[in-house]
Amino acid sequence: MSLKRLAILLVIALFGVEIALAQEDEAKLIDEVIARVNSGVIMRSAFESTQKMILERLREQGLKGEELEKKFKELQPQILDDLIDGQLLAQRAKDLSINVEPQVNQQILLMMKEYNCESQDCLGQKMKEAGYEMEELKKALTERFSNQAVQYREVFYKVINRLTEKEKKEAYEKYKAEFTEPAQVTLSRIFIALGKDPNESLVRAKDLVDKARSGVTEFGVLAENNSEDELGKKSKGLIGEVKVSELQPDIKAAVENAQVGTITEPIKQENGYSIFRVDQRKEAVLSPFEDEGVQEKIARILVGEQAEKQMEEYLGKLRSEAFIEIDPRYQFESSKIKSAMIKRVPYMSEDEKKQREKEKEKEREKEKKAAERAQKATAKNKQ
User: Which CATH class is domain 183-283?
Assistant: First the structure.
């Protein structure tokens, strides 16, 4: 994978689609403001860079042609909405005096490790080779972590504090599988490949089942001497510990409730027959409701269920209190955020204003005289 490709994937993973660092040289030279958010602005280059990232991700998902175009059109109105919301959250972070420098530095260190760099200068050079500026990266990281901090402080933390004991217990019952350590079994296997005569292979497999169950020859020895796969020869058929839930349906059915020492009947698989022995069992264990880890997980689940609505309400409040002006060319019909309606008045000099006033006065005189004539004509008709 090229350095530039790796960098693009890293940026997407870090910032999602609302922040775009990569900007083409041409876009930097020819740029313009497409939205104003209080004292902040959204540049066309950021919007177009994000569009390119979205298109790339959709292509990576295998979309093409009309399907790609349709999906992109669905997502396109969200781009500016997300960029504006990002600006609002960043501005709110400043209002709250949020400091995310430690998180930014930590992320930089992780990236240095990723790129095998011992200094920021080294990382900066590699970022430059990939088409990025270090300062842009730091700025984007700062905005990203600041936005997350605002969301936690202003929304998620409040949701957590409002959770009731009843809600928590209902979530515990509903998502018990999430708090359960799954059942596990340690298995060994003898494998008999399908030969020219499948019936003969089945007969051989059944014979080995009888021998293993008789106890005359230990299962591991039978596997070592008879199993027709590398596992049998190298480890006497020992597969090891596996989660019951991850087993193939036919194998799961045979061992899920089997006691330790059970030897299964031959199980038909794609290229042969498998005989399993249950060596050990670990039953599923449900962690208690009071467990600290369970309480944290319940909180995350409930926040996940409730926070989307709460977050949208919070962003709606920020939008309603903000001055947002959007270039009409980028105001999509299905966008959540609408531009403030501003009446533009062209500039006029004092002389032009006086001339305009004279013209209006003449128009008023004409209208007055026309009204007088109409009044006289009406009075004459009555006579």
Answer: alpha beta
